[in-house]
Each structure stands twice: as C-alpha cells, then as structure tokens.
Write a structure and sequence with these properties.
6 strands, Four Helix Bundle (Hemerythrin (Met), subunit A), 330 residues, Rossmann fold, elongated, alpha/beta
C-alpha cells in the first residue's frame, strides 16, 4: 500500500487565498431592489461565509485524506512513529480539527452579527473582526501545519509495500545490500562507497513461474541496543519484524565496509535471535576475497553460507534458488 497525504497550505497563503476568493465572490453577487444597508450586509456576510468555507474545506481535506494511524498495518504505524512521531502527528491533526471547529463557530456568530447590524460601519467592523480572528486561529496552529507539511514530505517517501512473499536484506552498513538488491531485482537504488547511503527502505521485485517476489533493502544495522539505534536503523528493524519471510544477512569479510568480522557476527547473532524467520547468511564481495579467508570464516562461523559478488552478478542465481527452496517453491 502507498501512504499519501494531501498538499497543505501555509497559514498566510491559506488566508490570502480565502480572502481573495471572498472578495471576488462578494463583488459578483447581484443584489437588486434593496436598501444600501441590506446590500452591504449581504456582501459582507458572503465574504464571511466564503472565507469560512474555503478554509474549512482545505483543513477538512487535510483531516479526511491523512492516513488514520490506528487503522494502518503495524509496519506503517511503527514507521510513522519512528520517522514522524505518532503522538505529535495526532496532536497536529487535533489542532487542525480544533481550528475547523472554531472557524465554524465564528462564521455563525459573525454572520448573525452582520445580518442584524443597524449601521454600515458596524457591518464592516464585524466582518473585519471575523477576518482578524480567523487569521489569529490559523497562526496559532502554524507550527502544527508546518509539522504536518514536513510529515507529508517524509511519508511520501515511504515504501509501497505489497502483499507478496518478501525477502529482507540486512547487514552492517556498506556491505553491499543495495548492490545485491539491484542484482536480484534490477532495481536501481543509489549506491555509494560509504555507510548509510540507504537512509530509507528500498524495494525491488523478481519473478519465478509467474509469481512475484518482493525484496526489501534496509539501512545498515550497527551493533548496539535497539533503544539506542537511530531512526534510520530502526526502519531496518521494522522491516525485519513485520515484513520478512526470509532474511538475507550479508557479510563483507574483506572488512572494506569498515566493520570487523566479529562486529558483523554480533549483528548476525542478534538478528537470528530476535526474529522468528529463516536467516540466509551470504558472504558478499567474493570476487575480491581470498579463498583462504573464506575458509577461515567458514570455520569461525560454524555453519553453511553462500558466497556472491553482487557487483559482478556472480552467485545471484544460486541465491534465488536458495530463497525459492526455503519458500517451498522448488
């Protein structure tokens, strides 16, 4: 599913749009055979109702089209909490609802005042008061609107997770996870030779016997307690927890990645113990790794693993076969 939020105007822009529209609508209002006072009342009341309608419509669209956090699948709910913050997200939406309610009340109050005014200057004064109070309300929630605008930008980058068999690639930073994603699926993530190039979850797909498989590339994991991990790392944890049916754990035993083998093994052991899914260990960069070093790692690791060169596309078909075998497709 793909999460989306509507475009949100800044308070000053929304005020400007509403006031301009109100002036235009009032100017085009045709009122005949009534006294000057009645005509002024009708035009000023039209402005009040138009401003109220424009602002309420925009804010209500923000409320209605923003994902209901409590109704989202656990992965997306937790992702919003990690990247945006659920409590602040709900608080900001609550501020929008408060503003709509206040403006609705002010519209009724000042419309009545304008309709029952006995002097022209009183009509104009009430309409100006309404404009001032509405502007004040929007500026009171400016921080919340700006927060939601930033939340919208972040949420728009969330992955479009599909209901498919899912393989999640994990490992320390810079071990070649994004390169493996590209080799397995043909996806084109940004790849650089420094840690944390992947700052969010990336997706790719491959097919076998007309069935589609989803591969998830996660940000690199560091060897530290979950509660001490930053938002980038915690996205990886969420993918492992909620999406993975198989985890590919990628090692770089050349240590070019900048993380010693023992460090990578600690991360592997943590992943294997925390998540109740099959973990497939793979040694990457086999094209530049001495055979002796691979054998030494085999003894140290104490279990079977595959080798590959994601960059050179070597061993990729073996990985796919192993994935399909573990998923019962072969």
């Amino acid at each position: 599913m793909k999460l989306d939020m509507p475009f949100i105007l800044n308070p000053d822009k929304l005020i400007d749009v509403a006031f301009r529209k109100a002036s235009k609508e009032a100017s085009s209002l045709s009122i005949k055979k009534v006294s000057k006072l009645v005509r002024i009342r009708k035009k000023e009341e039209k402005k009040i109702k138009s401003v109220s309608s424009t602002i309420k419509k925009h804010l209500n669209k923000v409320i209605s089209r923003t994902p209901k956090v409590d109704e989202l699948p656990p992965f997306y709910r937790e992702l919003i909490n990690v990247v945006v913050g659920i409590d602040r997200f709900k608080k900001s939406l609550g501020a929008i609802k408060w503003a709509v309610s206040k403006i609705r009340y002010l519209e009724r109050y000042y419309s009545y005042k304008v309709r029952t005014s006995r002097e022209e200057k009183e009509v104009y004064r009430y309409r100006r008061e309404f404009y001032g109070r509405v502007s004040s309300i929007l500026r009171q929630i400016e921080d919340e609107i700006l927060f939601l605008k930033e939340a919208r930008r972040k949420i728009s980058k969330f992955p479009d997770i599909k209901d498919l068999p899912t393989i999640v690639i994990a490992g320390a930073p810079n071990v070649g996870k994004s390169t493996l994603l590209r080799a397995l699926t043909g996806a084109k993530p940004k790849i650089e030779s420094y840690p944390f190039t992947t700052k969010r979850i990336l997706l790719g797909y491959f097919e076998h016997n007309h069935r589609k498989y989803q591969v998830v590339d996660t940000p690199g994991l560091l060897d530290r307690a979950i509660e001490k991990r930053n938002p980038v790392e915690r996205q990886a944890i969420l993918a492992l927890r909620y999406l993975a049916q198989i985890i590919i754990f990628l090692f770089d035993i050349t240590e070019i990645c900048g993380y010693p083998i023992d460090y990578q093994l600690r991360i592997f052991n943590e992943v294997s113990s925390l998540f109740n899914v099959e973990v497939l260990p793979i040694v990457n960069k086999a094209d530049i790794t001495e055979k002796k070093k691979i054998e030494e790692f085999r003894i140290k690791f104490g279990r079977n693993f595959l080798t590959c060169s994601a960059l050179q596309r070597e061993g990729i078909e073996d990985i796919k076969r192993e994935i399909l075998k573990k998923m019962g497709e072969l």
